[in-house]
Every structure is written in C-alpha cells, then in structure tokens.
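Board notes (copied after class):
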Amino acid sequence: MAREKIDRLVWDAVFGADDVKESSRRQIRETALQQGIFPATTQSLYETRGKKLYSGLTVPAMNIRGLTYNVARAVFRAAIEHHVGAFIFEIARSEIGYTGQKPGEYAACVLAAGVREGFRGPVFLQGDHFQFNRGRYRSDPEGEMESIKALIIEAVDATFFNIDIDASTLVDIEKTSLDEQQEDNCRVTAEMTRFIRSIEPKGLTISVGGEIGEVGKKNSTVAELRAFLSGYLSRLGPGIKGISKVSVQTGTTHGGVVLPDGSIAQVEIDFKTLEDLSTIARDEYGMAGAVQHGASTLPEEAFDMFPKVGCAEIHLATGFQNIIYDSPYFPQTLRDKISQHLREKYSNERGKGNTDEQFIYKTRKKAFGDFKKELWSMPENTISRICEALQERFALLFKKLNVVNTADLVNRYVADQYRPKG
C-alpha cells in the first residue's frame, strides 16, 4: 500500500467520523493480514519459556501514550533492523482514559505502523493493568467486575490477545494470614480468567497475566507469590488454562519518584527477589516467570540485569513519554500551552508542597489526550526528529533485554494457527 494511503487511513482511523473510523480500521486490519502481519498471543511463547526450552531474555512491553502511529513505526524500524520478534505493544486501563485511545484505535495505529515499515510476522497487543479500582469494588463489586469484563470484550474484539488482570489493589494487608490477604485477588483473577476463556476466539489461547504486588507499594515476597498462585489455581476450576506470568513489585514506582527540580530519583531494584520470584513461577508453576513494572526511567545499566535474573517481561512507558516532551525539537509554544492547560485543568491534582516542575511532570501524560490532534499535527520534520531519538532508545532496550535476533524464535513458537478462526 502506498505510504500516503496508509497515512491517510490511520489519520481517519483516529480522527474521522465514527463510520469513517470503523471503515479505516477494517481496511488497516485487512491490509496488515495481506502483508503477513497478524495479531497474536504470547501464550505458546511463554509456555515454552516455562518448559525451559529457551532463556536469557526479557520481553519488553511498551506503552505508547501519544503519537502512537509514529512511535510504533519507530519500534518496528528498530525491530526490523535488529531482527526482534519478542516485543509487545500495550495500553493500560488508565491510559485508555486519559490518552483517549480505545483499543480499536490503538490496534489500528500499531498495525498501520507495521504496514508502513514493511514488518511481517506476529504482533502482540496487550491490555496492561486492567486494574480493579479498590473503592469502586468495595462499594459495588458487581459493577466494577462488569466494567472490567466490558473492557476485556472491547480489547479482544480489537485483537488484543494478551490481557493482564490487576486485582492486586484488592489485597487486604490488614488480614492476618497471606492466604486471607490475597483472597480477593485470587478469586477475582480466577473469575476474570474464566471469563476470558469463555470469549476468546476459536483456535486461540489468550495469554493472561496476574499481579500480586501493587507497583509503588512494598516489595513482593516468595510467600506472597505462593499464597496467590495456590489460592488462584484452587479457585480456577478444572480444565481451565491459567495465567502465564505474574507481575510483582521489586522497588519501582510508575513514572519514577519526581524530585523538586523535575528530575527522577535513583531507585534500587531488588533483583534477588525478582530472580527468586521468576524461578518459582517457572519451576513450581510452569509459567514464563515474573513481570517487572515501572522500569522505563531506570538508568541504562539496570536493564542488563533483567535477562540475567530470569525476568520474563518488563513494562515500559514514562521514559518514552519523557523523550517526546523533553526533546529539543518539541515546539516551545506548544510546550508552554500544554503546561498552562495542565495548571488550569488539573490544579486539584497538585500534591502538597509540589513544585511546578513536579506537578507538570506528573500530569503531562494527560496532555496526550487533551492535545492529541495538535501533537499529531506537529511538523513532519519535528515528529521525525523525536522518533529518531525514540528509535535509538528502542534499539538500546532491545539489545540490553537480549531480544535481538528473536524473530526466528518467535516464528518458531508463535505459528499462524494463532490467527483467530471462525
């Protein structure tokens, strides 16, 4: 397909009228399939990891909050250059809201980017942190369950064949035993797993993830992992395939800890705990291992460690956002306009004692939704320069996470049969 045509299709898929959006998204999906791009599940890849048929790599899962088409193109360019097959595009429940990117739009942007860059092979789309709101669940558990189920249906319909359920927010540390603390997490994650299995496309097994430690809270322990997995599996029911990975907390915070000058504080990851949790998840439960969240703002040297300790997957978001906003090519007039908008619209979110730099850093992610069309409409040369820096970052991460030259590995274990049937 001509470059101009796919560019127009993706613009219409994002900004067109409802009927135009749907038609454009359908054309993008069809074109992707014709080119040999198909949305896929990591299930087989992760089951194989659980059987120890390969090791020594950590799959990056990248949350793209803004300029999604162009940023995804940068991901694909880096992947093609370095023969990377093991990488995931994801978006969280919260991000869907504040960036204004529903699953259908996000999938269209990613698939169109693959078409534009000449990619071929499986593309992994993932619903990240499909997270239960603790307050809403306590006041209306059925209502919150139905909200998550509706989101899962929407995501699966949009070809998200990887779903991470996050009920770690329901863990009650006031209870005496670990089994009691994890009870709601186990029960809800099991119910969501059964629901996903009931709606997954024929011939395809969606990869489901669970979570035991809410990011930004205390570090997870081996005892908590065993309590969660034992309770979860006992509630799952016979013949139901369970989760393929589990997210844990090892010392990070989403977005990092922001200092008064707007810079990010250095944090220490508990790599020994991450290694222990990954080993137990594989050895005792046959899973791919543990998942690390909130890592994109870590120093470069930290990323070499994740494959060494057997981390199965790592989630990356804010670091890419920072490259966009902090780029010397980002228009200063637009940056100033965004900052003033944030001060006015989100003033109630300013933390006590926060400097202006801290406030802007914490809230600017929301400008991806509020200024979506203006960001997409920046000069082509500006977007290209920003995405060149992003491409360099993606390439660096692919190397450090040891997923270079994994295209053959992925093609071996993620075959065309995972294309949905019927």
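Comment from the instructor: The chain has 20 helices and nine strands. Residues 254-259 have pLDDT under 50 and may be disordered.
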